[in-house]
Amino acid sequence: MFIKKNLIAHKLVLGTVQTAIDAAKNFLNNEQDRRRNLRSNHISEKNFLKKNVARSFLRVRFMT
Question: In terms of pTM, does the model score above 0.90?
């Protein structure tokens, strides 16, 4: 009886540890996705600004 209770407790602990590991993996994956999205958005904004500055420069240059 004691061994059976001990095995059940051991399985519960292993399940809890596995849950914690899965949660940590999910957190890291979400963080990597968030950083990737931020980086791609930053690059897109940077390219957008470059294009707008170039267009503004061309407008000013051709108007004068």
Answer: no
